[in-house]
Amino acid sequence: MAAKRGPRPRFTRQEVLEAALRVIDAVPPDAFTMRRVADELGMGVMTLYGYVRNKEEILEGVTALLFAEAHRAASNANWDDQLRAEVRGLYSVGCRHPNLVTLVLAQRSAAPGMFGMRERMLTALLDAGFTDATALHALGALCNYALGFAGAQAAASPIDLPDRIRELPAEQFPRLSALAENYDAHLSNEAFEFGLELLITGLHARIRIAGGC
């Protein structure tokens, strides 16, 4: 006699993770709970545990999902293009989901979703000929640049930066006052790309000095 099949799940795992991401984006990081995710899905908390074991598994799943979408570098790309793609992907995630970055960085356990990106970047650096120490320093600079720039944009988004500059006494801040109208350009996407190219150019100079590729 064939075994009876149980009821089909109401949601796929991806739908659960997408619902969790909506909650993460909507509430402060310290307010993210399993109950809020269950409420978003219209189910009880115990039912949610049938999809994911805990909050950490949700964060890892969401992180892996987003970084898989953000990873666009071709496997045969040059090391610098691989780094550009990874840093842009990290920056994009940081811009769109700053609360998620805060939650993931606060985790005590490793998050393979985010470390997968770091593994690819470190591999690109080491394969290019950088020493272990220099590759780790470069990895830190690139990751911190992407997340820091995204964080600065998020913090400044509710603020009219040109108005803030215009409130300053012009005699004490003549250069800032003269450029007040365009001051928020220093946190634009163009400014991010400018800084990224400075970092990549610096790495090219470093590898030339070391006699690498």
Short characterization:
With 213 residues, this protein is mainly α.
Strand content: under 5%
Major β-sheet, in short?
none
Give the averaged pLDDT, no decimals. 89
Compute the number of helices.
11
Number of E strands: 0
CATH topology of one domain: Tetracycline Repressor, domain 2
The CATH H-level homologous superfamily of one domain: Tetracycline Repressor, domain 2
Structural class: mainly alpha
Distance between the first and last residues' Cα: 67 Å
Report on the architecture of this protein.
The chain has helices at 13-26, 34-41, 45-48, 55-70, 79-96, 98-105, 112-128, 132-156, 161-166, 174-178, 189-209. The protein is an all-alpha fold and 213 residues long. It has a domain at 75-209: Tetracycline Repressor, domain 2 (Orthogonal Bundle). It is flat. It starts with 12 loop residues before the first helix and ends with a helix.
Write the layout of secondary structure elements.
Layout lengths: L12 H14 L7 H8 L3 H4 L6 H16 L8 H18 L1 H8 L6 H17 L3 H25 L4 H6 L7 H5 L10 H21 L4
Helix pairs in contact: 1-2, 1-4, 4-5, 4-7, 5-6, 5-7, 5-8, 5-11, 7-8, 8-11
Keywords:
213 residues; Tetracycline Repressor, domain 2; 11 helices
